[in-house]
Specification:
Blueprint lengths: L4 E3 L7 E3 L34 H11 L12 E10 L18 E10 L14 E9 L2 E8 L12 H8 L15 H8 L5 H7 L14 E2 L4 E4 L5 E10 L8 H10 L3 H11 L5 E9 L1 H6 L19 E11 L3 H6 L12 E3 L3 H18 L85 H8 L3 H16 L4 H14 L1 H11 L38 E6 L5 H13 L3 E6 L5 E2 L5 E2 L3 E2 L10 E5 L2 H7 L3 H12 L4 E3 L4 H6 L10 E3 L3 H11 L6 H7 L1
Parallel strand pairs: 13-14, 13-18, 14-17, 18-19, 19-20
Antiparallel strand pairs: 1-2, 3-4, 3-11, 4-5, 5-6, 7-9, 8-9, 8-12, 9-10, 10-11, 15-16
Helix pairs in contact: 2-3, 3-12, 4-10, 11-13, 12-13, 14-18
């Protein structure tokens, strides 16, 4: 039957005809005989407005777009589940924090912030990390980022921040980047941004994959237990895959080679059954700690170092299913920070309180009405009963006569009518009875006034390689700023964070004189202890699992070696792509043609975590003059990647200008055991010594 539909799994409202009958119909269900030719008066005559089939098709097409998100427009959503490993009844009464072994369904959307929906994935930007937990007690949304602090302390500044970061209103560019005057003007006039600036100028903003980054709830929340007692909490996501980022030069090239690099990576790994996982960690603390801590726990520009309050792991998020329909799920998902369940509560963080208004409000605009909770991806997976009614696109409508309370239906003689739902003080949401007192003021608390100490702590906690990347990033970004006074003002801030960093940037910008320090509300605390947890390289996985090896093969390459490399990569939990001069493949030493996944022109080495070159001497001579082949090797070298090569490939290494500079990041390949050794080296992910040589 053409009008019988099934709802596809995963909550999509995508509808497919059942059985053999795949007759196309109109949206009204009427079978269509021809949807490729508009009804006309005669074969070459004018089109008739009468054609209801054509009009319906065009009408629907005209209305396909909804407004993109004002921030976080480019995102990628994935289904999964959360499993609690350790119950925490002492902290929270929420079921999700008390029932171990239950798989709570989730939907997670990763995103960039500034770029529009079509912007490239490797923009230097914060990544959104938002998870909707469909708990048995209602939806809980943890709408976080991959950075634990934020640019501003008060939500009222958010429109200014976003206007300054997005394309300038007159010219409509630059897209998806902060390397321009307006952004640096705003942040250099907002000292509270300096800690966040350190994070965004680090490699955290150019992650190798969504799979290899941390997530943070950012704000301090509350947990409430069955006795109504409150503890403060900060939420952390720790990737089991380890942390990893790319280099800036690599990011720039990835954006050209594959603007969908991150979403493709996520799709491919889930499609291949390699499900990424994150542990959920909590930092729990009480009022006494909040009192004694140097910074205000309500200030979202501050962290609580893990070394100070340890992150306790309580459960695991597994992402295990791609969406059926990108629009229905990833686009229509509506996260709201106000979506919490009993046992979790807000703190007075002024950024969080402001967000609670913004997220609900924005969904009205984006999804067109108040009934967006009826859209399958947003609908809770537990009973929903209330007296809210009507509005655009109402899908789940109550039956019966009663739509108000209090009511007396269901009581007395012959009253069959269902009286409808009632509030339940024992199971229902109750707020923490925090004492509130004070005069109404527009005032930034003195306790929010230290803008540099944690910025310094972050910088000091990085390895020298990471510090160099930060200096380079600041120099690059500020070199795109046209106004000299803005450049200087920023260097004036950097001097409050770290004089050496300020010097590097001033030198990189060619400033003749060192600018004065910017006046500070508080002096920097110079000696906060380093926090190793803040460095990516100190938390690398030392494993090649989940990474990708690109093997560049050409005529005469050793077939057995290629097989050994494939096997070694598989054993290491990595994936392989065969790259060749032709996408049809190359004839190897065994006389057989090996198929290629990619043609060299479309597969620069920036798409891989490590590369191997397996070809005969003639091919190596030939491709030593070929620009894509030269770039393949040269970029792998410049980006500190491990390079496996056969002796016969040396002419290509020479052509790429690296033959004289071969270091321990090069591994000669000959047989199966050399392939295994090579993959073992790749576990270090990058041969950073090569960067050190550059620095010396
Ligand atoms: Fe958001 N933010 N935000 N934000 N945010 C939105 O909501 C907002 C902030 C974050 O994948 C919008 O549905 C204000 C911090 C993520 O759909 C909007 C403030 C953090 C996502 C909004 C902030 C975030 C958003 C735009 C200052 C990290 C994408 C579309 C107080 C903890 C969610 C939408 C998704 C999206 C407002 C600051 C994370 C306009 C007013 C801090 C991950 O409501």
């Amino acid at each position: 039957m053409a009008n019988e539909f099934e709802l596809s799994e995963g909550g999509a409202n995508h509808q497919k005809p059942k059985g053999d009958d795949d007759v196309m119909t109109t949206a009204q269900g009427a079978p269509i005989a021809d949807d490729q030719n508009w009804l006309t008066a005669g074969p070459r005559g004018p089109q008739l407005l009468e054609d209801h089939i054509a009009r319906e098709k065009i009408f629907h097409f005209d209305h396909e777009r909804i407004p993109e998100r004002v921030v976080h427009a480019r995102g990628y959503g994935v289904h999964g589940h959360f499993e609690l490993k350790k119950a925490i009844p002492q902290y929270s009464r929420a079921r999700i924090f008390n029932e171990t072994g239950v798989k709570v369904p989730t939907f997670t959307r990763f995103s960039t912030v500034a770029g529009n929906k079509g912007s490239p994935d490797l923009a230097r930007d914060v990544r959104g990390f938002a998870t909707k937990f469909y708990t048995q007690e209602g939806n809980w949304d943890l709408v976080g980022n991959n950075i634990p602090v934020f640019f501003i302390q008060d939500a009222i500044k958010f429109p200014d921040l976003v206007h300054a970061a997005k394309p300038a209103p007159d010219r409509g560019f630059p897209q998806a980047q902060t390397a321009h005057d307006n952004f640096w003007d705003f942040v250099s006039l907002s000292p509270e941004s300096m800690h966040m600036i350190m994070w965004i100028m680090s490699d955290r903003t150019i992650p190798r994959s969504f799979r290899f980054m941390e997530g943070f709830g950012v704000h301090t929340f509350r947990l409430l237990n069955a006795q109504g007692e409150s503890h403060f909490v900060k939420f952390h996501w720790k990737p089991k895959q380890g942390l990893q980022s790319v280099l800036w030069n690599e990011a720039v090239k990835i954006n050209g080679a594959d603007p969908d690099f991150h979403r493709r990576d996520m799709w491919d790994s889930i499609d291949a059954g390699d499900f990424p996982q994150w542990d959920l960690g909590i930092q729990v603390f009480d009022d006494a700690f909040a009192e004694e801590f140097e910074f205000d726990v309500l200030d979202s520009t501050k962290i609580i170092p893990e070394e100070r309050v340890p992150v306790e792991i309580i459960g695991t998020l597994t992402l295990d299913a791609n969406v059926d329909n990108f629009f229905a799920e990833t686009e229509q998902v509506a996260f709201c920070t106000q979506n919490i369940v009993s046992g979790i509560d807000f703190s007075d963080d002024p950024l969080l309180q402001g967000r609670n208004f913004s997220y609900l409000d924005t969904q009205l605009k984006r999804l067109g009405g108040p009934n967006f909770t009826h859209i399958p991806i947003n609908a809770p997976r537990c009973p929903v009963r209330h007296f809210q009614q009507d509005g655009h696109m109402a899908m789940t409508n109550p039956k019966g006569r009663v739509n108000y309370e209090p009511n007396s239906w269901g009581e007395g003689d012959g009253m069959e009518e269902d009286r409808g739902p009632r509030a339940c003080p024992t199971r229902g949401f109750t707020s923490y009875e925090a004492p509130v007192d004070g005069r109404k003021v527009r005032y930034r608390s003195e306790s929010f006034a230290d803008h540099y100490s944690q910025a310094r702590q972050f910088y000091k906690s990085q390895t020298p390689i990471e510090q160099t990347h930060m200096g380079n990033a600041l120099t690059f970004e500020l070199s795109k700023v046209e106004r000299m006074d803005i450049r200087k003002r920023m260097v004036g801030h950097l001097r409050r964070i770290d004089e050496d960093l300020a010097l590097v940037v001033a030198d990189g910008l060619g400033l003749a004189d060192m600018p004065d320090k910017v006046p500070a509300a508080r002096e920097t605390i110079e000696d906060l202890p380093e926090s190793p947890a803040l460095s990516i390289l100190k938390n690398g996985p030392d494993s090649f699992a989940g990474r990708k090896l690109g093997i560049y093969i050409a005529e005469g390459g050793d077939a057995a070696l290629v097989s050994a490399l494939k096997q070694a990569a598989k054993d290491a939990g990595a994936t392989v792509e065969i790259v060749a001069p032709h996408v049809a493949g190359a004839k190897l030493s065994d006389g057989e043609k090996m198929a290629a996944d990619q043609k060299i022109d479309g597969a620069p080495s920036v798409l891989y975590d490590a590369v191997a070159i397996v070809m005969g001497a003639d091919a190596a001579e030939k491709f030593a003059l070929d620009k894509p082949s030269i770039d393949f090797v040269n970029d792998a070298f410049a980006h500190a990647k491990f390079i496996g090569y056969v002796a016969a490939a040396k002419p290509l290494l020479k052509g790429a200008g690296v033959a004289e500079r071969m270091d321990d990041g090069f591994v000669e390949l000959s047989d199966g055991s050399s392939a295994t050794n090579f993959l073992k080296s790749c576990g270090k992910l990058r041969f950073w010594d090569r960067e050190k040589v550059k620095q010396d």
